[in-house]
């Protein structure tokens, strides 16, 4: 599931980290030892909550399968988008406006897929809610960027990192949940197979 955020969160994290590191070096003499640095704030945002405990139910396997199926479908959509943008970049036809539009489409796609999930368990809906909240926040950031394109790159990148810890927590919660059902281990194998197949 890390794949689902790499085109937004990971580049943003890297650019933010490098930018902040440069600023930190310039301002070291002006900072006190007790001041919270930009890097500290980023790491705090990325920190995920401990995995929560939920009672097992007969509906667990169905909800786990539904969430993994969503993961695979969104991964396929994201791969197609990235391939398209990469080809356009190599041909020199990619514009910032088109790239932003495709990313907005991708976010709307995952929000729609998440909303369509008919999950029956408390744990499933908990994970669904965390994922939806993250992508809804990313959608709002995209809209804000379109309305205020003059914002500094560091401000935009830092904003995209916000909430990523919750998304990571959702993934860890799902992994922990699935691990309680060894018979569902093939879902991970199938996901890997699908990614490899789509690459050819």
Report the total helices: 9
- β content, as a range? under 5%
Mean pLDDT: 78
Given helix and strand content, the structural type is mainly alpha
Number of domains: 1
Attribute tags:
200 residues; mainly alpha; disordered C terminus
Describe this structure in a few short sentences:
The chain has helices at 3-6, 9-26, 38-46, 60-91, 96-116, 122-147, 153-161, 164-179, 186-198.
Protein described:
- The chain is mainly α.
- It has one domain (3-18, 58-198).
- The chain has nine helices and no strands.
- It starts with a helix and ends with a helix.
Question: What does the secondary structure layout of this molecule look like, with pairings?
Answer:
Elements: H1 3-6, H2 9-26, H3 38-46, H4 60-91, H5 96-116, H6 122-147, H7 153-161, H8 164-179, H9 186-198
Helix pairs in contact: 2-7, 4-5, 4-9, 5-6, 6-8
């Amino acid at each position: 599931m890390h794949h689902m955020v790499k085109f937004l969160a990971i580049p943003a994290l890297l650019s933010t980290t490098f930018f902040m590191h440069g600023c930190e070096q310039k301002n070291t003499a002006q900072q006190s030892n007790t001041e919270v640095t930009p890097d500290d704030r980023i790491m705090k945002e990325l920190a995920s909550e401990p995995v929560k405990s939920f009672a097992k139910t007969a509906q667990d396997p169905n909800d786990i399968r539904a969430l993994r199926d969503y993961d695979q479908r969104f991964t396929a959509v994201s791969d197609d988008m990235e391939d398209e943008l990469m080809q356009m970049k190599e041909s020199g036809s990619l514009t910032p406006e088109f790239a932003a539009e495709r990313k907005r489409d991708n976010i709307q796609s995952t929000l729609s897929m998440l909303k369509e999930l008919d999950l029956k368990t408390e744990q499933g809906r908990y994970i669904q809610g965390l994922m939806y909240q993250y992508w809804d926040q990313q959608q709002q950031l995209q809209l804000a960027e379109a309305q205020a394109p003059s914002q500094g790159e560091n401000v935009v990148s830092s904003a995209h990192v916000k909430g990523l810890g919750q998304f990571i927590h959702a993934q860890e919660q799902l992994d922990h949940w699935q691990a309680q059902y060894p018979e569902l281990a093939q879902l991970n194998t199938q996901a890997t197979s699908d990614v490899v197949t789509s690459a050819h």
